[in-house]
Amino acid sequence: MREHPDQADLLDHLAGRADEAVVAHLAQCAACAAAAQKAARLLEAGRRAAAAPKPSRRAFRIAMQAFRGEKAPAFLQLVFDSFLKTATAHAIRSGALTSRFLRFTGDVDMEIEVKEGARGAEVRGQLRPANCAGEVTLLAGKTRRRAKVGADGTFVLRNVPRKTVEIRVGTARAVTDL
Amino acid sequence: MAPPTDTELLARCREKDEGAWKALIERYAALVLSIPRRYGLSEDRAEDVLGEVCVALVKSIAAGQDGSEFAGWLIRASTRATWEAARKDRVAMTPDDMPPLTSAAPPDEMVAALVEEQRVREALHDIPGRCGKLLTLLYFTAPAPADDEVARRLKMPRGSLGPTRTRCLEKLRERLERIQAPSEPS
Predict the structure, then answer these.
(1) pTM listed for this prediction
(2) Are B142 and A47 inside 8 Å of each other by CB?
(3) Is residue A60 within 8 Å of B54, Cβ to Cβ?
(4) A144 and A112, same structural domain?
(5) pLDDT value at position A90?
(6) For B55-91, b where at least 16 C-beta lie within 10 A, e where not — what string?
(7) Contact A47 B18 (CB under 8 A)
(8) Whole-angstrom Cα distance, residue A87 to residue B161?
(9) In a domain, A1, yes or no
(10) ipTM, 2 decimals?
(11) Are residues A87 and A147 in the same domain?
(12) What band does A27 get if pLDDT is binned at 50, 70 and 90?
């Protein structure tokens, strides 16, 4: 190769579109070898940028809430799931287990019991502190269920689809598969 | 028209301009989210980290944040929030492609690498037409698709890839020069 490789040649070479003339030239041209190192840094930075996760709609919503001074929703953490602790796969498949207990913790504590209801699941829960919210909302795709919270912090959600659900308690959220 | 600088956007945010805030978030959300994700936090927790960084940024803007070293400021704030979230969730912070964190402060070389990454991200986003997509497919996607596949995805004749690539690299170079230091006001 008589001429020095340009940036496109170097990037092609680094990206695996091997060109023997470029390889040979780099072996004998210190300036081009330095340019190749610079191109390699560009390649690495670009690959990292391209691989980074794209922000979701929720991420933008949280950012806008922060700007407006609204409290961002906080996710409750699942700390206990009776299926994971006690159930065997056979027990789950055979239907031997009739209810499932889950416990979440975070800004509020929430325990729920999931049972089979007449149409879908029935979710009975209790919040701590008991007076942390007047109602809870459950979202499952386009399905929305609401329940009032009693003075003792208990609530019941009926006819809940067996799928991934989000339970909202004030600004707190809990997500789980039912 | 050149996109507004960080300094301009921050000044408009100080005047409660939501459009400026949205532009700032569109520019930097991927950078902020990439830090908790690379350190093993879930998508939800990473978005919580973004929320905390945004709250800190709103306060910083009110206190006079002027955009100097802005990307570095965001990286440090994101790392601090990630550190706190990971400790709370007991997530082991041992990623493959990032230095191990031994404190809430990121190492200087990590900040420099992320600033460079952000600079390329912005340049690819800002260059017009299909250039950003073409260069991403040709050089920044691993494994890189074959040229025929690139042409198919971009609905371009295979023979025009080479000349277009050269023009696009020139635009990328110009844009990178303009945002030589992305955190500094131009």
Answers:
(1) 0.70
(2) yes
(3) no
(4) yes
(5) 63
(6) bbbbebbeeebebebbbbbbbbbbbbbbbebbeeeeb
(7) no
(8) 57
(9) no
(10) 0.84
(11) yes
(12) confident
Let me know if residue A124 belongs to a domain. Answer: yes
- Return residues 103-142 of B near A (CB < 8 Å): 113, 116-121, 124, 135-136, 138-142
Overall domain count for chain A: 2
Q: Which residue of B has its CA nearest to A15?
A: B139
Between chains, do B144 and A69 touch, taking CB under 8 Å as contact? no
Instruction: Quote the Cα angle for A105-A108-A111, to 5°.
Output: 60
Report yes or no: B71 and B30 within 8 Å, Cβ to Cβ.
Answer: no
- The pLDDT tens digits for A110-142 are 999 999 888 889 999 999 998 888 899 998 877
- The verdict on A93 and A168 lying in the same domain is yes
Query: Can you tell me the mean pLDDT for A152-159?
Result: 95
B60-87: pLDDT as tens digits: 999 988 888 899 999 999 999 998 888 7
Cβ–Cβ contact B57 with A under 8 A: yes
